[in-house]
Amino acid sequence: MRTPLFIICEVVVATVLYLLFRHYGNDYFFFAGYTVLQFVVMATAWNILGGYCGYVNFGSAGFFAIGAYSSVFFYTVGQNVQDMDPGFLTSVLHVIFPIPVPILIVFGGAFAGLVGLGTGYLTLRLRGVFFAIATLALAVVIETLIVNWEYVGGSRGAYIIPPNTVPVFGPYIQYLFVLMLVMVIVGLTAARLIERSRLGYGFATIRDDELAAEASGVPTLKLKLIATVLSGALMGMAGSTFPFYLGFTEPGSVFDLSYAVNSIAMPMIGGTTSWVGPLIGAILLGTMQQVATVTISSVANLLIVGLMLIGFVIVAPNGIVGLWQDWIAKRSKS
Amino acid sequence: MEFSFSLLINAIAAGLLLGGFYAAVTAGIAISFGMLDIVNIAHPAFIIVGSYVAYIINAKFGVDPILASIVMLPAFYALGAAVYQVYYLSFEKRGQESLRGLAFFFGLLFVTEVLLLIVFGVDYRSVNAAYIGPSINIGPIELPLRLLVPCAAALAMFAVLQIFLSRSFIGRAVMAVSQDPLALRLMAVDPTRIKRIAFGISIATASMAGAFLIIIQPVIPSVGRDYIGRIFAICVLGGLGSLPGALIAALLLGVLESLTSTFYGPSWAPAVAFGILLITLAVRPSGLLGR
Predict the structure, then answer these.
(1) I need a surface site. Which of A15, A35, A265, B35 has the fewest CB within 10 A?
(2) Domain coordinates in residue numbering, chain A
(3) Percentage of residues in chain A with pLDDT exceeding 90?
(4) Secondary-structure class of domain A3-333 per CATH
(5) Which of A122, A147, A310 lies nearest to residue B281, judging by beta carbons?
């Protein structure tokens, strides 16, 4: 399928989904749906580096939080425009602020991408495992910085009061839902494009045998940095709407370990080699968690995710997509 | 000036004591990550399990937590050997340890934390022992026994490990397996068996480190996460596979963290480990005493 056609398909599916939700659902559906879509973006983003290049990122929550806190920062600046000292600056800033959410998404993505670049530059020249460890520690450090940064609320957290309704979309959550749908389309299209381009083949050579790739002239460091930046930026984008979703942002909820676990578990369970895997994994696990949170408890669903992750990496290393391919292969043989 | 000088001395002393404890926490990782090339990021989870085991035994029978942890060493050794067996069969044998092995340990870390959360809840747990509370004074330096006792025990454990690894046959085989498994096999030693033993030992150290941890501070299930960055920073700074290096790095990090929290506030302390990790990786990836 050609890329324009693929995008049209995505848009059609997204529109149908939105209209169905709008027609049959209530606001809860949108709240739950938003979370699942957010996980689709996170899983797709993780997979660009983890699945295609084979580099494990444990710091998904850190990148997510950079996006979230970049929104909090610009929102807070917008709130304090009146207090700016030179008068003319205030009038200029009044034109800029409040920054519309779609632009905040771009900012969130840019900052997270930059942090990805920095971390990657320092650690990606070494063995892959050092990068994994660095990302693990990165989340802790970003949390330390945020906790100590009073301007964005510090450890107390920050309030963002979104308007109740938005023109055209109606309730604010529906607006956020549509924004997240757009991010899903962007993420999936990017992942699919990468997969079928020179870039994707380059990534695959790194995953399969980095030494051989380097020896045959693949610019591995450059490719790894590209993957890290893309992946981090997508995660930052997914996080940048989070403050508007809950209205209250605090370090404990943004840096929750469940983001890191889910972004790894979803591609691993779905299958890491193609864009379909994270999508399947995120929809399956995301929906299941929404149901389990309501029916059992939120702790129990985290346990289920962890156990499924362990189970899948041991029993079905290639995820649901791998199981499906095996089944097809078996059927065509017999 | 006098005041700030005693503050400085005390911060360094507390940092050294803390560093001794960090050495115990890192010992397990120095073996599994440094020597066996197994990136066991679930190690902090095993340490927290050690803390809770010490807590249960202490609360039920009133046994000293360090003694309890020594009694529990075989159980942790068996646990480690079992985990290695699963890891070997599912990942190492298939050559998939890099991506899926990491995900496996990450899942293990997460599941352990959630299980502890379900069983024990989010309340802080602590132990009772005679040496928790009082402290001894040497001149201007105040040494809390709560830190001094775990530090001494940690150094003793470290010394035993170092002697075992450098003197005994199995210990030398563990060192060898990290360098050349094939050569080891040619000398009629099964590398898998050696790795299983070594991994068992590395998890066994978590039992004692856990007991030290719960003596030093009250424990909740999520506290293990704070140690991930720390122990890997120490391990990398010390040089992979070098126990003496890890000890020096642990003392260094302890002092730096203690100084940071004394002069800039405790909320900045977690950033120190990461800073050290990044600088080490950028400047000297082989660490202080790396091979």
Answers:
(1) A15
(2) 3-333
(3) 31
(4) mainly alpha
(5) A122
